[in-house]
Design brief:
transmembrane helix; Butyryl-CoA Dehydrogenase, subunit A, domain 3; alpha+beta; cell junction; membrane; 245 residues; single chain
Length: 245
């Protein structure tokens, strides 16, 4: 597998990154980060479940889908530290992942549509496909760390709230969506790193374009001594003896 072709690894990485960003977007928008279930012992009343998200809060009776209390201004008055951190961490993770997707797309388009031997006058303006995928992999890994750390913290903070108040708190589906999206971002970064490691066998620099110079300009580079050159040196050092007739 070489850097000069578009392979299934890069395409799969792009699709995986896109799905992970979509999962992050769903986790950000859904009001299902934490549930607070309030029980009543009055048989004429129903239990209430309060669904807490990053931006809104909704209270529902059991068996009902309509919000009895709907607070669209919840994001300005969040009193739970883990959710406040997630309000900044998840959008930052999404922005980082989208930037990585953009770099990955640039690398694939450059690989697919740019000629193998470009004009030497345009060498300084070339895009390095391998470099784009490498930086994209690093950005995906960073986005994974930014998303995963506060999402896992929600689970521990939920236990803290249950010990401090009453055992009425539980984390909801958005936590699992965010953790799964972080796993998708990590998988995407691993795919790009594996693709880049497969490209290391090519005679390309770390960051410069694969064809930073015309192929004929690489002939000045010093080549390792071959077996024939070593034999030639031995033949020079050893005198040739001839028998007189």
């Amino acid at each position: 597998m070489g850097c000069r072709d578009v392979h299934a690894a890069t395409v799969l990485a792009f699709l995986s990154g896109t799905a992970s960003v979509a999962g992050l977007l769903a986790a950000v928008l859904l009001p299902n980060w934490r549930q607070m279930r309030l029980y009543t012992f009055n048989k004429n009343e129903r239990n209430v479940t309060i669904y807490t998200g990053l931006w809104i809060k909704c209270a529902r009776f059991d068996g009902s889908r309509d919000c009895v209390i709907y607070d669209p201004q919840w994001y300005t008055a969040v009193d739970q530290l883990d959710l406040r951190v997630l309000q900044f961490a998840l959008p930052l993770s999404m922005f980082t992942a989208v930037s990585a997707l953009f770099l990955c797309l640039i690398g694939m388009c450059n690989t697919a549509f740019v000629s193998s031997v470009p004009n030497i006058k345009m060498a300084k303006c070339l895009v390095n496909s391998a470099g784009c995928h490498l930086v994209a992999g690093l950005l995906f890994l960073l986005a994974c760390a930014i998303c995963l750390t506060p999402s896992v913290w929600v689970i521990f903070y939920n236990n803290y709230l249950n010990r401090k108040y009453e055992p009425v708190f539980s984390f909801d589906i958005s936590v699992f969506i965010a953790i799964a999206s972080a796993g998708g971002l990590f998988f995407t970064s691993v795919l790009l790193f594996l693709w880049y490691c497969a490209c290391k066998s090519l005679p390309s620099p770390f960051w410069q374009p694969l064809y930073s110079h015309a192929p004929s300009m690489h002939s000045y580079a010093s080549q390792p001594y071959s077996a024939r050159s070593r034999l030639s040196a031995i033949e020079i050092d050893i005198p040739v003896v001839t028998h007189a007739s």
